[in-house]
Amino acid sequence: MMRACQLNTCPAGIATQDPRLRRHYTGRPEHIINLMTFLAREVREHMARLGFRTLQEMIGRVDRLEPRQAIEHWKAKNLDLSNILYVPDSGPEVGRYCQIPQDHGLEKSLDLTTLLDLCRPAIEKGEKVTAELPLRNTNRVTGTITGSEVTRKWGAKGLPDDTIDIRFNGSAGQSFGAFLPPGMTFRLHGDANDYVGKGLSGGRIIIRPPEDSTFDPSKNIIAGNVALYGATSGELYVGGMAGERFCVRNSGATAVVEAVGDHGLEYMTGGRVVILGPTGRNLAAGMSGGVAYILDEHYALAASINAGMVHMEEVETGAEAAELRALIERHAALTGSAQARRVLDAWAALLPKFVKIMPKDYKRMLTRIEEAKSEGLAGDDAIMAAFESNARDLSRVGGN
């Protein structure tokens, strides 16, 4: 309910090792052991009734299934499941479960054939590496193996900014730049499939149309669905539209994009997002953290947003407006975006049309953290005080 499991600040004491919060939790590891022991025993009893000793023996044995009788619901009572449950004649040479390891063909990936060797000077010595490479949509998870080697060598802090700076030309396959750590910058001149920047962990991804393209990128999708899924930090600049579920479960990355499809910002828990154009329906569903700024030139956002957990606000302060402008300027510089340049050129007229999306609980927590700081607390102590204050309020209204 607090959506703070990853912050070590769980007020119920379950998802934390902080002794001040841990004391709130009355459970013991033995309780879980007891539950799993009972569960295993009950499973064995069911298996024994069916005549099985192991779970592997059960796989595919649809002949041991019986349909529930006397189903009266009009949708279900005439269903014929025989085709789904059909068992073809086969001998013991046909396996019912996975017995042959899957070959993912990793040795053919762009990382193992090209990128890893290209980036060796950066990985081993921290030397700057720049390059330009073609890319096809059969090149999936480009950069992930190379990024893992950076993290093994340099840890979570990664490398200095732009130590590895690669320009790609073409179409990226799924999960382009997934889990990129700090110090890696990928510039794609072209377009990308789904899951761009999945799990982004400090790196930077820039996507812009090819220089000879003739289409309007602000009205065409150049990054697929579910970009920045589960990202924790880093930056993404998309000089065009992105597909559906943009920034789903983003918990810390910064992104600028020119339009998004349905379900944008879904379950977002942190980070900052700027959208310089229209959005699809159900925007911000389940969004509990982070901040988003949407340019709502045609006053259509109210019909698209899921307001169950968020407020729609104005850009409140000059400092906030300056920060927003700086992000758009950076987007324009990195992507060459005509849409960003248009917004900047008409800044005084368009700033009032930006709508700030702020989660209700997140705003309340930020306010309480500031209150704790005004009382002399700092850092983690201020955050702990805010969480404990909020937990007390929840308990008073019946929350748990």
Short description:
The protein is of the alpha/beta class and 400 residues long. It has 12 helices and 12 strands.
Provide an overview of this structure.
The protein is α/β, with parallel strands linked by helices and 400 residues long. Among the domains are: 1-95, no CATH class; 194-362, Pectate Lyase C-like, CATH 2.160.20. It contains 12 helices and 12 strands. The chain has helices at residues 19-22, 29-50, 55-58, 110-118, 120-125, 144-154, 301-304, 318-335, 338-345, 347-350, 360-374, 379-396; strands at residues 129-135, 164-172, 184-192, 201-208, 221-223, 233-238, 241-242, 251-257, 269-275, 289-295, 310-313, 354-359. The strands form 2 sheets. The chain has a 10-stranded mixed β-sheet. Strands 5-7 form a two-stranded parallel sheet. Helix 6 links the parallel strand 1 and strand 2. The longest helix has 22 residues, at 29-50. The relative contact order is 0.07. The model has no long low-confidence stretch (mean pLDDT 92).
Shape: globular
CATH-defined fold name of the domain at 194-362: Pectate Lyase C-like
Strand order of the largest sheet: 1-2-3-4-6-8-9-10-12-11
Question: What's the architecture of the domain at 194-362 in CATH terms?
Answer: 3 Solenoid
What gap, in angstroms, lies between the N and C termini? 8 Å
> Quick one: CATH superfamily of the domain at 194-362?
Glutamate synthase, alpha subunit, C-terminal domain
* Mean pLDDT reading: 92
Any idea what the radius of gyration is? 26 Å
Reading the helices and strands in chain order gives HHHHHEHEEEEEEEEEHEHHHEHH
Which stretches are low in confidence, meaning pLDDT under 50 for 5 or more residues running? none
CATH class of the domain at 194-362: Mainly Beta
Largest sheet: 10 strands, mixed
Give the beta-strand count.
Answer: 12
- Percent range for helical residues? 25-40%
Strand content: 15-25%
